[in-house]
Amino acid sequence: MKDESTPTTRALDQANQKYRGPERRRHRVFVTRNTEYHFRDGVCVAVRDRRTGGFLQGHLALSRPLHGGIRFFENGAISPNPGEPRPGESLYFASEERDLVTSPLERIERPSKELARAYTTRKGA
Q1: CB of 71 within 8 A of CB of 81?
Q2: Ordered strands of the 35-40 beta sheet
Q3: Quick check: is 81 in a domain?
Q4: I need a surface site. Which of 10, 20, 26, 119 has the fewest CB within 10 A?
Q5: 18 torsion bin: left (phi>0), alpha (psi -120 to 50), beta (else)
Q6: Rounded Cα distance, 27 and 40, in Å
Q7: 80-106: string of b/e by CB count within 10 Å (b at 16+)?
Q8: Could you tell me if residue 38 is inside a domain?
């Protein structure tokens, strides 16, 4: 696979790897097989269908905090993770009404600045 990063982005990546302080980034995207879950400060602000690229307005995850991850094993066992979900774990959103468990997490990304700015212009975000 060809490395398409620029010298500037490589330098920023190296600087970020050296930083040992608290996480300061507010926006993150948790990517599952079919869906992207967009978060600001730990709360889901947008859900996007990966196939169509369209945002899902009535998704149960919207406005909910992420409570952790759940790993399902082939033998039926379940292993909860109250911390940040890792690839291979399903996202877990707890609720008084209806809990939500997603398909397994593939990766965690940062949204583009343009996309993160769009969250504030979307209704309900």
Answers
A1: yes
A2: 43-49, 35-40, 27-32, 100-109, 90-93, 68-72, 78-81
A3: yes
A4: 20
A5: alpha
A6: 5
A7: eeeeebeeebbbbbeeeeeebebebbe
A8: yes
Distance from C-alpha of 114 to C-alpha of 86, rounded to nearest angstrom: 26
Range of the domain at 116: 26-121
pLDDT at position 20 is 77
Domain count, the chain: 1
Position of tokens 């967009």? 38
Token digits of residue 121: 């212009």
Token pair 């039926």 is at which residue? Answer: 76
For residues 111 and 36, give the distance between their C-alpha atoms in angstroms, rounded to a whole number: 10
Does residue 77 belong to any structural domain of this protein? yes
Residue 1, classed as helix, strand or coil, is: coil
Does 105 reside within a domain? yes
pTM value is 0.77
